[in-house]
Design brief:
Layout lengths: L2 H13 L2 H21 L1
Helix pairs in contact: 1-2
């Protein structure tokens, strides 16, 4: 997981920002799937 994404998720969890957590989770799954498909 990229460091910028970890930092964003940590901030969202600290602030209990559920909308942002969902968006960041979607970003992570999209990123992870696109990396897996490119290999």
């Amino acid at each position: 997981m990229p460091s910028w994404l970890k930092r964003q998720l940590q901030e969202a969890y600290d602030k209990r920002d559920l909308r942002r957590i969902r968006i960041l989770n979607q970003c992570w799954f999209y990123y992870k799937n696109s990396k897996a498909n490119s290999e």
